[in-house]
Write a sequence for this structure.
């Protein structure tokens, strides 16, 4: 038995009420209409809703990425981007593609300091192939005089589910607060 959504139940109920009455065809029309309604509804509702699992996967990937950044692991940091990923860094032109991202991350990881971020929200599209993540970050480094400094900010990452089912970042942007 297929569970129908309220709009689907209303459609089936309405369709069944408009079937001609009388004769031996009455029952057959109802069965045919019901079968058509079930087939139409099952075509759109067969896919299992995986949004909660996808959100958990993205949150886990973000924790791994954060740990990779803390460990200054270049290859692991770059591995979270899709091949065509883009980085929109403050004060920089768009950084596009694996080679450019690797160069940018090499430069970034070679500078002293730490960058910690925390996820605030992950939203998965209804289609289940795109998601966005928002959050906050703290960049701790030293200024020109060697004094510790901290910069707070926010970020957005757009994730895309790859053919192998893994999530990869296709767009990454962050900027400092005021």
């Amino acid at each position: 038995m297929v569970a129908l959504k309220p709009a689907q139940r209303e459609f089936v109920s309405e369709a069944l009420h408009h079937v001609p009455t009388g004769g031996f065809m009455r029952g057959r029309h109802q069965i045919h209409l019901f079968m058509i309604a079930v087939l139409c509804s099952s075509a759109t509702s067969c896919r299992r809703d995986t949004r909660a699992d996808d959100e958990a996967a993205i949150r886990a990937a973000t924790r791994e990425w954060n740990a990779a950044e803390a460990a200054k692991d270049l290859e692991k940091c770059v591995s979270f981007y899709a091949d065509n990923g883009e980085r929109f860094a403050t004060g920089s032109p768009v950084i596009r593609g694996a080679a450019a991202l690797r160069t940018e991350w090499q430069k970034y990881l070679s500078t002293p300091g730490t960058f910690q971020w925390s996820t605030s929200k992950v939203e998965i599209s209804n289609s289940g192939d795109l998601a966005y993540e928002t959050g906050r970050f703290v960049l701790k480094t030293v200024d020109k005089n060697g004094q510790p400094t901290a910069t707070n900010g926010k970020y957005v990452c757009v994730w895309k589910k790859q053919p192998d089912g893994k999530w990869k970042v296709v767009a990454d942007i962050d900027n400092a607060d005021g």
